[in-house]
Specification:
Helix content is 21%, strand content 23%. It is of the alpha/beta class. The longest helix is centred in the last third of the chain and has 18 residues.
Length: 412
């Protein structure tokens, strides 16, 4: 009566999606919620089954690792009773999220990843010893990627974690495309990529799907060191891991970070303050804005290629603000894509822009750091990357007046 979330090449995760998700429409008598249970609850699945019986909840996901709770469709007339249940910490409304890509790799050159002694980029396939989760639209088994397994948190078979859009495959290539003499090369070449599909083929999903992915990553924190979230939704940081404003996604990320996973996340593409976006506004993650760079070099001399912008400046679509920790190349980034589908190319390589494309540069750099500092905490990784960053870019058009460091990987 449900489906287990089973990774490939990793022991099965004991969490079940009890029914196919049912999304409420305007005027319906039910809606989708994320139910966070109190820490004293020892068996979230049992509580979920009891709530299904008592309150008529259609349970979609059960969470055990990043938080205790579940997601499902709740009848409107039962919501108050559910919230009053002594085992419930809080209930939050499910909400849509989307991939932060703009349009269809100078970036590797611009951050000097080719000079990293850990990356060893020289055309010889010597793989960086790190595991990276791509929480996205899925990742295809591309010949230039080392995809070792994953999970599907969207409706469908658990092991159908291939890319339904092309976005996640592009992200994965920037993180870890093989240094094998063809195609492109990533920041951490050959990194073991775990495809965590939380967005559908249109690049959209729900917070409950995202939390399912975070939960899976947290359950495998003994394997996965870094995670990339090139996606966002509306929201803000309450400074209390979501316990004040009932943000289950924030609580899940806090617990995942505490378990040892470093998260790099996209600032967003709304050209607004990242304080209004999640997970970008969360203090526990590394939030990344996008640099417009067309030639892989400082100085602002590059001519626009795939889109109009000014070389060596904050990308004209990028979110900004005090929550941004680093800036990285995010305009006209060449990386791996599927050979067919919405974002694709017959060659298997394509160019996309967005803070989604900036973020995996940081994820790859975090992977380089953790490969040589295996005991580093997420906070230590964040501090190290910020400390090593450069001020060698033109922040003249940055609305907040805060010049975040430009990611530099040469010494990692």
């Amino acid at each position: 009566m449900g489906r287990l979330l089973r990774p490939i090449l990793v022991a099965a995760l004991a969490a079940a999606a009890l029914v196919t998700p049912v999304r409420a429409v305007t005027g319906s008598s039910s809606a989708s919620y994320i139910v966070v249970l109190k820490d004293s609850v020892s068996k979230p699945a049992s509580v979920a089954r009891d709530h299904a019986y008592r309150y008529g909840v259609d349970v979609e996901f059960v969470y055990r690792a990043a938080l205790k709770g579940y997601a499902g469709t709740v009848p409107t007339d039962q919501l108050a009773r559910l919230e009053a249940d002594s085992r419930v910490a809080f209930v939050s409304r499910d909400a849509p999220v989307s991939a932060d890509a703009q349009v269809l790799p100078t970036g590797i050159d611009r951050i000097d990843a080719d000079l990293s002694p850990t990356a060893r980029i020289d055309g010889v396939d010597q793989r960086v010893d790190v595991d990276a989760a791509v929480i996205d639209t899925g990742v295809d088994q591309h010949p230039d990627l080392n995809v070792v397994g994953g999970v599907n948190c969207t409706p469908g078979p658990d092991d159908a974690f291939d890319d339904g859009l092309g976005h996640g495959t592009h992200v994965a290539g920037t993180i870890g495309a093989l240094d094998n003499g063809f195609g492109v090369v990533g920041v951490a070449p050959g990194a073991r990529i775990w495809s965590v599909r939380v967005l559908g083929s249109g690049g959209f999903g729900f917070r409950s799907w995202v939390i399912c992915g975070i939960d899976w990553v947290t359950a495998h924190a003994d394997v996965i060191e870094v995670a990339n979230m090139s996606l966002s939704g509306g929201g803000s940081d309450d400074g209390n891991c979501g316990l004040t404003n009932d943000d289950a996604e924030h609580l899940a990320i806090c617990n995942s970070v505490a378990a040892g996973v470093t998260y790099a996340v996209a600032a967003g593409n709304q050209a607004t303050d990242a304080a209004t976006r999640v997970p970008a506004s969360y203090d526990e993650v590394i939030t990344v804005s996008a640099l417009a760079d067309f030639d892989g070099k400082p100085g602002g001399l590059g001519s626009p290629t795939c889109r109009d912008d000014e070389d060596d400046t904050l990308a004209n679509f990028s979110d900004f603000g005090a929550d941004v920790d680093l800036i990285a190349p995010g305009v006209c980034i060449l990386s791996t894509v599927p050979t067919s589908g919405q974002i694709s190319s017959p060659s298997g390589y394509g160019t996309i822009s967005g803070t989604s494309m900036a973020t995996p540069h940081v994820t790859g750099a975090a992977g380089l750091y953790t490969a040589t500092h295996p005991s580093a905490t997420a906070a230590q990784v964040r501090r190290a990357l910020i400390r090593l960053g450069s001020s060698n870019w033109n922040a003249v058009d940055d609305p907040d007046g805060i010049k975040e460091p430009l990611l530099q990987a040469s010494s990692l």
